[in-house]
């Protein structure tokens, strides 16, 4: 038996900043996921001995937010969004290009809105001195970190432009691979 090989369309070379952003987002997201798993494991194990981990639910919720915003940059750079191309596949070339540009612009806009909302929330939390319920951590610090990660998603979204009109039906065979 011979192994099947899948041909992948090569991505354009990335700038040093985008490669660094991708590595940073993967490291932060992966570390927060591993920490979430560890905290949950220790908490569940402790509950069996009537000694749950104090503040575990707060810690897990912080880590989940950090993982989400780190993952937003990574998913955007890798064009790994969930996409449904039922109608887009049926569009003629010029309309497909218009749809790709609108989709890209919508991604940039959404990333920008996420960043703006996160910054706005962190500033509000800073001015109110809001503390978490159990650990009494100043929540603004955590949300500032999430806002910083959300801001990094904006250049990622700007970088991942829609494919050129001549490349849209090229090596990918018009299957929609690499589009968001």
From TrEMBL:
GO terms for molecular function: transmembrane transporter activity. It is found in: Cell inner membrane. Keywords: Cell inner membrane, Cell membrane, Membrane, Transmembrane, Transmembrane helix, Transport. The chain crosses the membrane at residues 21-39, 59-80, 101-119, 139-160. It is a multi-pass membrane protein. GO terms for biological process: C4-dicarboxylate transport. The complex comprises the extracytoplasmic solute receptor protein and the two transmembrane proteins. Belongs to the TRAP transporter small permease family. Part of the tripartite ATP-independent periplasmic (TRAP) transport system. This is TRAP transporter small permease protein. It comes from Pigmentiphaga humi. The lineage of its organism: Bacteria, Pseudomonadati, Pseudomonadota, Betaproteobacteria, Burkholderiales.
């Amino acid at each position: 038996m011979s192994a099947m090989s899948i041909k992948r369309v090569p991505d354009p070379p990335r700038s040093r900043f985008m490669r660094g952003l991708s590595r940073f987002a993967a490291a932060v997201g992966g570390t927060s996921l591993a920490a979430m798993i560890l905290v949950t494991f220790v908490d569940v194990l402790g509950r069996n001995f009537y000694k749950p981990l104090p503040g575990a639910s707060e810690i897990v919720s912080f880590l989940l937010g950090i993982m989400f915003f780190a993952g937003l940059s990574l998913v955007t750079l890798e064009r790994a969004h969930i996409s449904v191309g039922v109608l887009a596949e049926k569009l003629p070339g010029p309309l497909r290009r218009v749809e790709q540009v609108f989709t890209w612009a919508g991604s940039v806009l959404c990333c920008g809105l996420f960043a703006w909302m996160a910054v706005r929330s962190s500033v509000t939390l800073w001015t109110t001195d809001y503390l978490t319920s159990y650990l009494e951590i100043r929540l603004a610090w955590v949300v500032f970190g999430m806002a910083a990660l959300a801001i990094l998603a904006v250049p990622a979204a700007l970088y991942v432009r829609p494919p050129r009109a001549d490349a849209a039906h090229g090596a990918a065979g018009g299957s929609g691979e690499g589009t968001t």
